[in-house]
Amino acid sequence: MALQARIEVEDVSVLFPLYHGSSRSLKKMVVAAASGRLGKDQQQRVVVRALQNVNLRLSSGDRLGLVGTNGAGKTTLLRVLAGVYEPVAGRLRVQGSLNALLDPSLGMNAELTGRENILLRGLYNGLPRSMLPRLEEDVAEFAGLADFIDLPVRIYSAGMVIRLGFALATAIRPQILLMDEWFLAGDAVFMEKARQRLEEMVRGAEILVLSTHQMSVVREWCTRVVWLEQGRVRADGAPEEVLPQYLGTPLEMA
Amino acid sequence: MSTAVTTLAPAASLDLKADMSVASRHSLAVDDLVRGFGLWRLAWTLGWLDIRLRYRGSMLGPFWLTISTGVMVGALGVLYSTLFKMDVASYLPFLALSQVLWGFLGALVSEACTSFTEAENVIRSVRMPFFVYSVRTLIRNIIVLAHNILVILVVFAWFRAWPGWDLLLAIPGMLIWIADALALTLLLGAFCARFRDIQPIVNSVMQIMFFVTPVIWKPEQLGAAGMAKLPLNPFFDLLEIVRGPLLDTGVSGMTWLGALGYSAALCSIAWAFFVRARGRITFWI
Ligand SMILES: Nc1ncnc2c1ncn2[C@@H]1O[C@H](COP(=O)(O)OP(=O)(O)OP(=O)(O)O)[C@@H](O)[C@H]1O
Ligand SMILES: [Mg+2]
């Protein structure tokens, strides 16, 4: 890895025009309306301002925790960093291989066996054929699903799906790792294993960005915290500074 | 007990701006195509999986399609050769070929509309070239076509209507089909993601085109005047550049001109739209 991982977010805004009627995004709309973030864009369409003028610079070694109330824009920011949502204003520059754990069942097909899903994920990540056996071995071992690995994912329990998803997502080592909150749902034994594996990933001076509502996770894993409120960065700094401020505000829909 | 984290993700970098120049939009779209081709093994696997899952638990799998196409061709063949008073030996090979090719075309156009929306979950959680979904849609339909070709083989064998080396003359036509199919999945895939009522419209249009295009009736039945106008119908041109060589009826210059002209138009429109829309598709699905 010649180049050091780096993320630059300059003045990025993301608007969601509400295209497809009310039913699909009604829930999101209600949350947004309650927070006064519904607006109009230049073409007079109704939009949700999910992120507004966000600035962020991350470099090798940063472990960033995103905190904020429901609908603050944490997942949206992770998706922007992953290059999924292209900004409607501002600029995003990312350098370094990136892996985003946004959806526990990304590309997983419930009808396929765990093993087949591992191979599918390898393909999604554009891995050469020669790497696939190693991936398979690593994921099967880490997920610890025993014989279930050869059964369809359809019959897994929710926790087992998460184990497999976590093992898959972390088997392919990126320079930049983005995680949404779902990955914290494993059982206690698994969480311990997960933490060890994550620390391994973060060690080689890579970037971690995770979004969570669990402050213990932030305190344990993060060296920096960004507090998002209504799509804006309200505070950015060390966990000891930002968390007390964040927890000091009464919990309400921001 | 620490597990070795082994596999390295391929290196990557990203530079996205709002208000991009036309040139940088173009280069992002080209990049999408190139990387999409690079992931052909993924597209291939996804295409196969679609078929496998569609026919999960069924004994004959996609061969059900072959059987239903076969039965339909047989029944229509007998019925229409009587109605149109045509020789079965010349009509059935025509019908089998036309029906199978049209089946491919119709399904492809219809599925092009959902090529992005059906991949909604993946599109929202990982940055992936959109072209992968186009190739997947194409591959899925080629697999179905490959199963239906059996019907053509049986009919051709029965009536000893082998095209011989003329088969090779159909190859340029097939290449044009592939290019058009990919262009169409990009265009309709993006357009139908934005406007959800396009797909039903597209399906009705295809239904009408099925009847106004010589699929179950032969072009000769129109008479000379009618035949001269046929190349105006893009579906006729496209069908004919593959069907003509295989039936040994030849392809007229007008038909080739039409096929190339319409294809060039389709590809340019699709590209222009895709270049503009690419960054917005994720917001539409
Ligand atoms: N696809 C979408 N269409 C419309 N609005 C959206 C969409 N996705 C997100 N939003 C809006 O963007 C805002 C931020 O949402 P986001 O999912 O990023 O919140 P979050 O901080 O992850 O919340 P949570 O803690 O509940 O996961 C919300 O107001 C939501 O209504
Ligand atoms: Mg979220």
Report on the structure:
Chain B: Residues 43-244 form the ABC-2 type transporter transmembrane domain. Chain B: Keywords: Cell membrane, Membrane, Polysaccharide transport, Sugar transport, Transmembrane, Transmembrane helix, Transport. Chain B: Belongs to the ABC-2 integral membrane protein family. Chain B: One of its GO terms (cellular component) is plasma membrane. The complex is a heterodimer of chains A (254) and B (285). By secondary structure, chain A is an alpha/beta fold. Helices cover 36% and strands 26% of the residues of chain A. Chain A has a 6-stranded mixed beta sheet with strand order 6-7-8-4-9-10, sandwiched between helices. The relative contact order of chain A is 0.19. The model of chain A has no long low-confidence stretch (mean pLDDT 82). Chain B is an all-alpha fold and 285 residues long. Chain B has one domain (40-284). Helix content of chain B is 71%, strand content 2%. Chain B contains 12 helices and 1 strand; from the N terminus they run βαααααααααααα. Chain B has helices spanning 22-38, 40-54, 63-83, 88-112, 120-125, 131-158, 170-194, 198-212, 223-229, 234-247, 253-277, 281-284, and one strand at residues 13-17. The longest helix of chain B has 28 residues, at 131-158. The two termini of chain B are 43 Å apart. The interface between A and B is large, with 60 and 42 residues. β5 of chain A pairs antiparallel with β1 (13-17) of chain B. Adenosine-5'-triphosphate (ATP) binds next to α1, β3 and α2 of chain A.
